[in-house]
Structures are given as C-alpha cells and as structure tokens.
Amino acid sequence: MYLLRIAIRNLFRRRRRTIVTAAVLAIAIIIFLVVESLMAGLTEMSYDNIINLESAHLEIGREDFFQDDYKSKLRKSFSLEQELRENIRAIEGYLSHTAMLEFNANITTGRDEFPVQVRAIEPESFQEILTNANYIIAGEFLSSGSEGLVIGSQLAEMLSLEVGDFYTLLFQDQEGSFNTIEGEIKGIVSTPHPEMNLSTVFYNKEFAYDALRVETGRANRILIRLDDRDRAIEARENLLENLSGTGFAVRNWEDSAEMIKAMQAAGQIENYVVLGLILIIGGIGITNVVILAALERMEEIGMMKALGLKEKEIVGIFALEATGIGLLGSIIGCIFGFISVALFSNFGFDMDFLGGTETTYGIPIMGRLYGGWSPWSFGLVFIFGIFVAFLASLIPAYWAARKDPIEAIYRR
C-alpha cells in the first residue's frame, strides 16, 4: 500500500506529461473501437441484405446450378415433387419457401443494352421470403396475374427507363434458341443492395414458361426462410442428408456471404495491426516517461535504496506509475470510444458521401451505414492498454532500480 501511495503521488508530479501519454493510448483505443464498430455494422448489414434481398436463409438447386459454367441455368430446372416439398417443410424453424426460374438476359431499350439476371418469381410466395417489394420507389411490385418487369434504380437511371417505358429481354431459352420477352416497366426498386439495383430484374413466372420453353411448374432455385438465421447451418446439413442421392445441392446464407466473411477477417487483422502500431507508439512514450522520471528522481532512488528498499520494490513503483498511465488512457479511450460508437450506431454514416450512389465497395451494401456493438472489444482493449503500459515500463524500471545508491545520490 505504501508503494502504491508513492506511485500515485509520482504519477501526478508531471501532469502534462502523464495526460499527453495517456491521450496517445486513448486515441489508439478510440480508433480501434470505432473501426471495430464499422466492421461489425458493415458485416451485419451485409448479412441482412444477403438474407432479405438475395438468397434467404437456405437455397436449393441442382448440384451444377451453383457452379460457374456455360450451361444455361434453364437446363438445370426441376419439378417440385411432393417429397421435396415435404423435406423442405420438415426443416426445424421453417417459415416459408418460394420457387423461381433464374436466367441471364440482356435488357435493351432500343438504344442501350445491358446484361442482367432475371428472376422469374411467384410474387405472393416471393414476398414472404425476400423484402425487395418494400423498396418500391415508382410504380408497383409484381402481383399474381400481373405482367411487366420490375428493375433496380441504378439500372433505370443508366438506361433512362421509367415506369411505363418499353423494354426487351434477349436470352437463350431452355433449348438454346434465342428468344425475347417484351413489355412495360411495371416498377422500380431502390434497395440497400447495389447488385439488386443494377443487375437483377424481376418478372412474373407464370408468364415466362412459354418464352423460356420450360415446362409449367418447374424451377431452378428454391429459397427458404427460417425463423432464425443461426438455424441455417444445421438445417443445411440435415436437408443435405435427406436429399442425398437426388442430385440436389443446398446452400445456406453463409455460402453467399463468403466474400463478406473474408473481408471481415481481413478488416479485423488490419484493425489489430493499426491498434498494435499505435499502442507501440504509446508504449515508447511510456518508456520515455519512466526514463525521464527515473533521471529526475535519481537522488530519490538512491535514498530509497540506502534506506533498504529492494530492487523489485523500486521496479514496482515505476511499474505502478506506468500502469496508472495505462489505466487512465484506457478509461478515457473507452469512455470516448463508447460515445463515438453510440453516435455511429444511432446516426450512421452516409456511404454515398465517399463515392456517389454507384459505389459498392465490393460489398452488398450502399446508402447509410450504421455501426455495430461489440462489447467484448471494450474489455479486450481496456485490459490490453493497461498491459502495454505495464510491459513498456519494465526495462527502464529495472535500469533505474539497479543503480548504485551512492552513484545515484551523487548523480554519477
């Protein structure tokens, strides 16, 4: 307790030096927490967009459907047999499913042409699975019995299309012959998923069979929604086991988010590297603080040794001082980090400010990005800040403690 009182007293001998050194640690902690919040928010919103706008929790198709090859997706269609429907409905946490015909086409307006992915859907069941219809900004979404095409806002802007304008879809049907679908733009959606806004369009499946030369009722992709995304991993394994030998493949939402997971891992590594570099700078500052304190108190160190204090007790005093700086920096960093993350989580950040509405940053998210919370990060960085400060003090503390008391008193 006596050593602690000495350390606390010495800690505030040079208040400005202590505050500046603690501030360096605090800045490192704030940067780490904000970037961690950014990565958490970006990842969570990307997952939500993939689940709610692209692939749902589970998807089923022929084994070769999910492979990149030149074979038409329409040739990979299948009938929804009763056994397959029963296996889907038997999934734990099952809510609903929808079947679609997905194929590639070029959309042309007579002047411009652009490649798109067409999703021929069953409007009613589709809207139970995905939320694209919630983002209509012009016209209306597809409904049972209605014909027309729903396109994304970026595609509409690029091709100068509005609701009521005419379009032509040029594609290869199931037999490999070129065919077209013509009609009017029925609606325009603007979702937080850039791919949906630029390269995906929606058409009513009941009007597509004849043009695609696909037997009525067939599909090449089934999307399944569960009551919890965490069930999807186990559900995928169970469904694969039930469909073994049938030629079907099952993917969960994580399979569609492989790039996001890789980016998250890379981002975390970069975040820890930045934190480590800044903490190294802070550690060097603490080392300098301990060395300066030792030089300024050399006579005092000699007197303490002459009075019988052991080396480890003197080391303990300097280590406690440095730990105090680390504690102060960690507290300040966590407080201001908490405030920064709270503001980021509540008000978000407009990603369009960085590069306009067409910037996707390689991830399925655009618009306003909100931060996420990672409580364990606060505890981790708090302890890490104190540990770095303690570690940085040991070498200069031992150097000061090993001084000969007579030389120290006379500053030799």
Keywords:
412 residues, alpha+beta, 14 strands, two-stranded antiparallel ribbon, 2 domains
Distance between the termini: 31 Å
The rounded Rg comes to 31 Å
Number of domains: 2
Number of strands: 14
- Looking at how many chains there are and whether they match, the oligomeric state comes to single chain
Give start-end ranges of low-pLDDT stretches: 355-361
Strand content: 15-25%
| Strand neighbour order, sheet with most strands | 3-4-9-6-8-7
Description:
- By secondary structure, this protein is of the alpha+beta class.
- It folds into two domains: 2-49 and 260-409, no CATH class; 64-246, no CATH class.
- Helices cover 53% and strands 19% of the residues.
- The longest helix is centred in the N-terminal third of the chain and has 41 residues, at 15-55.
- It is elongated, with a radius of gyration of 31 Å.
